[in-house]
Amino acid sequence: MEFEPVLLRNVGIPGIQHLEVYQSRGGYQALRHALEMTPEQVVQLVKDSGLRGRGGAGFPTGVKWGFIPKGHPGPIYLCVNADESEPGTFNNRILMEEDPHQVLEGTIIAAYAIRARVAYIYLRYEYGRCYRVLKQAIAELYSNHLLGEAILGKKGFDLDIYIHRGAGAYICGEETGLIESLEGKRAWPRIKPPFPAVQGLFQKPTIVNNVETLACVKHIVERGPQWFRSIGVPPDPNNPRDAGSFGPKLYCLSGHVNRPGCYELPLGITARELIEKYGGGVWKGRRVKAIIPGGLSMGFMTADELDTPLDFNGPTRVGCLGLGTAAVIVLDDLTSMVEALYNSCRFFAHESCGQCTPCREGTAWMAKILARIRRGEGHMQDLDILLEIANGIGIIPGTTICGLADGAAWPVKTALTKFRAEFEEYIRNSRHQKTRRTEVRTVL
Amino acid sequence: MAVLSEDMQREIMAFTQCYATKQAALLPSLHLIQERFRCVPLKAIEELAKLLDLHPAQVYDAMSFYGFFRGEDRPLGKYRVWVCRSLPCMLRGADELLTEICRHLDIEPGETTPDGSITLEVAECIGACEVAPCVLVNDECKGNLTSESALHLLDELRRQGGENGI
Ligand SMILES: Cc1cc2nc3c(=O)[nH]c(=O)nc-3n(C[C@H](O)[C@H](O)[C@H](O)COP(=O)(O)O)c2cc1C
Ligand code: SF4
Ligand code: FES
Fold first, then answer.
1. What Å distances lie between residue A57 and A51, A93, A210, A298, A323, CA to CA?
2. Do B124 and A131 touch (CB under 8 A)?
3. What is the DSSP letter of A10?
4. Nearest CA of chain A to the CA of B23: how many Å?
């Protein structure tokens, strides 16, 4: 049976970016419904749904909302994380461009639930179209009593939403980097605890949520937590800490496939089904060599691992960092893993904020070593040095403040363990033949 | 004479109303300034610092963290063209595209054409991987590029940018 899209159901409806059309399709009924409940009841509803954050970490959304100190006098802030910069990921962009009111409705509901009176949409600068679409949609909301004071006549529920445009730094997607950036400083992630829910923006309780997470909230209020739990994968009975992988998910598919795009499917679809059934298979009649399951940071899977379900647990079982953003990047069998890994290392070296020495130096050295291997001047022992660096940086080994370093390490670890022979052969051949590749621009 | 016009100062003060601290208006203000001057002049940094109750060094510190802003020694051309080179775009020919674009414009990434029409930049994933390879022209994405369509796009921008100069 084909899955009926929920988050993308309005995509392509003419004029859906306008309030009138959105409302004619049932828009803002969920908000009305939420306002009939107490904020605590909305939080409970989201807890019951099992919704986990779509921004990469998969933390249960209702639980996070529950961390706001009880009875806090305010102000409390909501930050919508629309910095979407994980290579391979573009679902937030599609949600904002195609159906902005769905995102805004989820945002207003979330603000009500956590008692925020101001919400900031931290939008990466590159999303100019999103900016213009959202700005227009927000203006419509103000002139229709859906933003401002006493929303929909509800006394005491006031909300302002501001769009805050970023300035081209990946690290602003990390939630405390985002907060620092909003405050007008360099986006240096903060040491946690304190967590933002207790001390976040302007030192006040703050919830940071991904765009897709908030879009899900709207549908949970509309259709109920049981509906949400009927989609996806229930918790693993053998793992008491597994919270399950419920709900629809926007999978982004890119790289060497016939039909790259954003596909809405129940959590837990396998990589193979996504690529073959939805992506139309690998391009040019070739085969898969490797894939990345959830944005560059997650590391590589091999062609033998394609039956892994893309839920919150699947990618970890095959050595990847996690589901991440569920952005699947496909590499065909003619792709050089040396090139792919070089690209990854260059990215992370460029995007490290420089605050923690292991990350700043580690990412830079991994990029330099890969550049050297790629030029044909690599040594066999470089591979072990790379692994040593990769194993030492990140919040998992406990040496850095944020997860960027883990994201830099995982592609290196998975590539060098799963495709080691290819790296060795590349080094052996290039040292033997002294072939020097033409230097593709390496501006960091 | 102030670099920031009275209108700009008013706009900056309006930004501060959206936040609990004046400092938070920094990014929106820098965007405003760079859009207007195609760079952030040193004098504007001083004036902005005064408006936001900051030390100029604080403005400069935050500004220089984001590779996005240009000092007055390197102003932007009329169009800023960002060529995406992250993995999904690379897999679909971004490196070759970048090399061709450099050759066609006869400049390196970071530089501006002598007529001031185009500043070329390299970008990391611009969130449009389904239409890779792609570029951003200012903040609008153009995707599914071939070297032919990309060079055509650049010629078009150069024609339009050349007329107005900078
Ligand atoms: C380096 C780094 C970059 C991140 N980038 C993003 C991003 O662009 N968008 C996003 O929603 N979350 C991003 N995250 C995750 C956020 O820190 C945070 O977990 C998320 O916004 C929480 O929202 P959610 O619970 O709704 O997923 C990033 C994390 C790290 C470590
Ligand atoms: S891990 Fe890297 S990106 Fe994160 S705070 Fe430390 S230096 Fe910055
Ligand atoms: S990699 Fe180029 S748009 Fe994502």
1. 12, 19, 10, 11, 8
2. no
3. T
4. 5
Q: What is the DSSP letter of A394?
A: S
The closest ligand to the CA of B85 turns out to be 3
Among the bound ligands, name the one nearest to the CA of residue B82.
3
Rounded CA-CA distance A334/A357 in Å is 36
Comparing CB atoms, the residue among A124, A127, A255 nearest residue B91 is A255
Q: Distance from the CA of A351 to the center of ligand 2, in angstroms?
A: 9
* Residue A429 identity: N
Nearest to B68 among A84, A167, A344 (CB): A167
Residue A332 Cα, gap to closest chain B Cα (Å) = 9
**Strands (DSSP E) found in A372-441:** none
- pLDDT per residue, tens digit, chain B (166 aa), is 799 999 999 999 999 999 999 999 999 999 999 999 999 999 999 999 999 999 999 999 999 999 899 999 999 999 999 999 999 999 999 999 999 999 999 999 999 999 999 999 999 999 999 999 999 999 999 999 999 999 999 999 999 886 544 4
Q: Do A170 and B130 touch (CB under 8 A)?
A: no
How many Å lie between the centroid of ligand 2 and the Cα of residue A176? 11
3-state SS, A62-116, equals: HHHHHCCCCCCCCCCEEEEEECCCCCCCCHHHHHHHHCHHHHHHHHHHHHHHHCC
State the greatest distance between any 2 C-alpha atoms of chain B, in Å, as a whole number.
51
Q: Is the CB of B84 under 6 A from ligand 3?
A: yes
Backbone angles phi, psi at A342, to 5 degrees: -60, -45
Q: What is the DSSP annotation of A266-331?
A: ETT-BHHHIIIIIS-SBGGG--EEEEESSSGGG--EEGGGTT-B-SSSHHHHTT-S--TT-EEEEE
Q: How far is the CA of A210 from the centre of ligand 1 (A)?
A: 7
* Amino acid sitting at position A33: H
Measured from the CA of A212, which atom of ligand 1 is nearest?
26
Q: Which of B129, B138, B141 sits opposite A254 (nearest CB)?
A: B129
Among candidates A54, A85, A168, A60, which has minimal Cα distance to A404?
A85
pLDDT tens per residue, range A276-316 = 999 999 999 999 999 999 999 999 999 999 999 999 999 99
Mutation choice for B interface testing from A251, A254, A344 by most B CBs within 10 A = A254
pLDDT (tens digit per residue) in B68-103: 999 999 999 999 999 999 999 999 999 999 999 999
